[in-house]
Design a protein that fits this description.
With about 190 residues, the protein is an alpha+beta fold. It contains five helices and six strands. The longest helix is centred in the C-terminal third of the chain and has 29 residues, at about 140-170. Keywords: Membrane, Transmembrane, Transmembrane helix.
Length: about 190
Amino acid sequence: MFSIIYLLQNILFILIIIGIFRLIFGKAIREYHSNWSTLIDGFKYSSEDFYDKVKKELLSKEIQGISTTYIYRNIGGLTSGQRKYLRVMWKEYEYDICASPFGTGFFISWWLLTKDSLANRLIKRIPFVGNFLADKLYPKTYYKIDTASMFMTYANATVQKIIKDILNEKGVRALTELEKQPVLNNIFKR
């Protein structure tokens, strides 16, 4: 009887170590929430100027705890070039914005990501009961859903405002309502 308990403890310990290893070196701790993109054909604009306008507009709203930085993402594999993104951070949310010339046009996209805690990720990996425990210890509350929606709505509205201002300034057709709609992922499912 003692050897079975000892064996089960060792298996559980190994599973936890494997889970930690996979968590650290495997999947990122960020989860995709939503995204949006558009290509404005026949339009040229500076990525840096676009990022500066978005930063200025976002920071002027005095939201407590909001900050910005630049990140670089690989275009392809490890040895490929990189593209510069503007990252806007608030609470556990990250909003990555891409603005880039593309062919004869100007491409703009954003990705909203949520950060998941290390503890929650570890609990989810416990065989058989992990998701149940994670649901109880880290529930997806209305507050969490609402704050993700608030941040996404606010950041998207800011990007849309800057696009509208730039297009008006250059005398180019504004985006339609359909072109402004983000693509939502069901981040709150388990």
